[in-house]
Amino acid sequence: MLSAKEFIFASNILNMKKILSLFALVTVFTISASAQLLYKISGNGLQKPSYIVGTYHLAQSSFVDSIPGMRNAMEVTDQVYGEMDMADMMTPENTKKLQEAMMLPEGTLQSLLTDDELNRLNALMTDLIGFDLSNPLVAQQMGKFTPQALQTQLSMLLFMKRHNGFDMQDQFDSYFQQEAIKNNKPVGGFETVDYQIDVLFKGIPMDRQKKLLMCLVDNREFMEQMADDIINAFYSQNLNAIEDALNEKQNNECDSSPEEENKLIYDRNANWIKQMPEIMASKPTLFVVGAGHLPGDNGVLQLLRNAGYTVEGEK
Fold first, then answer.
1. Please, which residues bridge with residue 79 across strands?
2. DSSP state letter for 165
3. 58-114: per-residue pLDDT in tens?
4. Residue 295 and which of 100, 244, 251, 271 are 20 to 30 A apart at CA?
C-alpha cells in the first residue's frame, strides 16, 4: 500500500502521457467495425503505402509482435504520426500547462460536492488506495484536482487494481514514437497540447465534469466490466467487439451526448483526414491513433476510402 505522500507523487506523473488520450476508447459508438488493428493505405497518387494502427492506452507494448504485419509496417515507413507528439507534450512548458489544466482555478473538490457525494467518492478512494480526501495531505493536493482529472486518475487506478501485471511505463500507444526516435525517424502529431487540453479539460463544463466523476463513483462495476471487455477485445484484435463494448449504455446522464461524441471523436477524425494526404505524400507514414477512431462511417478508415485511398487490413 502506498503512503499518502507516495500516492500524491505518483498521481502527478501517472497520466502526463496518458491523460490526454483516455477518451479515445471510453465514448460511445453506434457504427460497424472491422476485426483488424493494422491497415495499409495506398492508391490515390501515393508512391509508397502508409499504414495506420489502432491502439489502446491500457495495452502493453509487447503486444506489438502479435499484430500481423506490424514489424514490417514499422520498417517500411519513414516517419510516425500520433494524436500528439509525446516528446512535445513532455516539455517543461507543456507539462506545466497540463498540470494547470488538471487543477481547479479556485476552490476545492470538496466544495463542489455535496456531503453525500463526497462520502461516496471517499469510499471508492479508500478501497482503491487506502486513504481519501479526509486525509489532510491528500486533500491539500488531490482536493484541488478538477473532477475530470480525478476521474481519469481513478479510472487508471481501477484498471491497475484489477490487472496487477499492468506496467504504466510500458504502454502500447507510446511505443511506436519511442521506436521511431531510436531509429532516427521523424515523429509528428495531429494535435497540439493546447488543443487537447481544450477538448479534454477546458471544453467540459464543471457541472458535467462533476457528473462524470460521480458516474464513475456510482457505477464502478459497469466501468470495470467495460474496461475488461475493451482490453480483451483489443488483444483479440477485434474492433467489432470493441465497438460492442463501447455501445453498452446505461440510458442515463452518464452516457455521452452526441455533441460530446462529435467533439471527442468525429470532429477530430475529420481534422486528421485533412492533414493525412500531405503527410503521406511527403513520406511513407505509420499513423498511430486510438482504435476507437478507426471504425464506422465517420471513422478514419472510411474517411480515407471516401478520399480515394485504398485501405486494406493486414493479415
1. 285
2. T
3. 888 889 999 999 999 999 999 999 999 999 988 999 999 999 999 999 999 999 999
4. 251
- Contact call for residues 140 and 44 (beta carbons, < 8 A): no
- Name the strand (E) or helix (H) holding 51: strand 50-55
Separation between Cα atoms, residue 199 and residue 185, nearest integer Å:
29
Under DSSP, is residue 105 helix (H, G, I), strand (E, B) or coil? coil
Ramachandran sector of residue 141 (left: φ over 0; alpha: ψ -120 to 50; beta: rest): alpha
Three-class SS state of 53: strand
From residue 182, alpha-carbon distances to 14, 79, 97, 185 in Å are: 24, 12, 27, 8
Provide the β-strand partners of residue 309.
none
Task: Determine whether 73 is exposed, middle or buried from the number of CB atoms within 10 Å of its CB (0-12, 13-18, 19+).
Answer: buried
196, 234, 219, 3: CA torsion to nearest 10:
-70
Cell of 28: 460511445
Q: What is the mean pLDDT of each run of 10 residues along the chain (315 residues)?
A: 39 41 35 68 97 90 92 97 92 92 93 96 94 92 93 88 73 89 97 91 92 95 88 88 78 89 92 98 97 89 97 86
Q: Which three cell numbers stand for residue 251?
A: 440510458
Give the DSSP letter string of 266-313.
Answer: IHHHHHHHHHHHHHHHHS-EEEEEEGGGSSSTTSHHHHHHHTT-EEEE
- Rounded Cα–Cα distance for residues 200 and 268 (Å): 12
Contact 209, 147 (CB under 8 A): yes
| Dihedral angle sign, alpha carbons of residues 281, 287, 293, 294 | positive
189: helix, coil or strand?
Answer: strand
| Distance of alpha carbon 305 from alpha carbon 311, whole angstroms | 6
**pTM of the full structure:** 0.85
Q: Please give the single-letter amino acid code of residue 48.
A: K
Do strands 50-55 and 187-189 pair parallel, antiparallel, or not at all (unpaired)?
unpaired
Phi/psi class of residue 43: alpha, beta or left (left: φ > 0; alpha: ψ in -120 to 50)?
left
